[in-house]
Amino acid sequence: MSVYTQVARDELEAFLQHYPLGELLDYEGISAGIENTNYFVTTGKQRLVLTLFEHHSAGELAYFLDLMAFLAEHKVPSAHPIADNNGHFLRTLNGKPAALVMRLSGRCIDTPNAQQCAAIGHALAQLHRAGQAFSGHRDNDRGPHWWHTTRNAVFDRLGAGEQQLLEEELAFQAAHRFDALPRGVIHADLFRDNALFEGDTLTGLIDFYYACNDVLLYDVAVTLNDWCSRADGAIDEAKARALLGAYRQGRPIDAAELAAWPVMLRAAALRFWLSRLQDHHFPREGELTHIKNPDVFKNILLQRRAGGDSLLTLWEGE
Hints:
Layout: H1 9-16, E1 24-29, E2 37-43, E3 47-52, H2 58-73, E4 91-93, E5 96-102, H3 114-131, H4 144-154, H5 160-174, E6 183-186, E7 195-198, E8 201-205, E9 212-215, H6 216-227, H7 237-250, H8 255-281, H9 294-307
Antiparallel strand pairs: 1-2, 2-3, 3-5, 4-5, 6-9, 7-8
């Protein structure tokens, strides 16, 4: 979340006239995240988040908004989009597709404890189960094809050691594909800044704008790499076991998934190392932006490469 497109008060007031939300009381830009323009909006009737989509077309956005409504209606803790006076979730503001969603209570957790990691594992299993009944489909646009495209963009800006690491990992991943593993709707970006808590209670998952249909285990790997990594990239085993234990209570994994686990952790680390390299070397202009350090996921990737089959024991529980 960032602010790339400025919205004046009178522009927002005109936009809100299309919703049964009362008068605008206050609004402010949100600096966390990096993809879309976001504002907190408070009206006489509700607290909301306004998103202006900087990359997705209106045609693409139906998947995200319909999915968010579906998950909220199926008891997955998440924010429901707000329909306008004509029953539509999507409108246009300042030339960009725009939507309002409910603002959930709670806050993001910088340093989660094991109980909070377990809550995330439980919610992720809920999402994966509920998503099996969702009729929409969207391919993962940050998959292997994107990895190679991004590699080509950033490669000449890397040092020799990073170039070697990137080439080795891309070759490794190309030799290990798992298209037969269980698939369905995944969040694809369930980092700590995309979940809200009140104490140890999860109040909601947010920012579904990378959601897609892909391998469920990959989503678990993406989540664990962020929630359960120490500063040096190594896994905090207590947190990892809490997250995975709660997840498998909601959706048991099979033998093929277990065998693929070390590769999936590496794939998830590679994807976010590449995206942070792209954002670092090709930053976009914005009033409030937050570009994250690529070295965080380079270190996670190095640790997962070193972990090997020992990573399988994380599923064994306490």
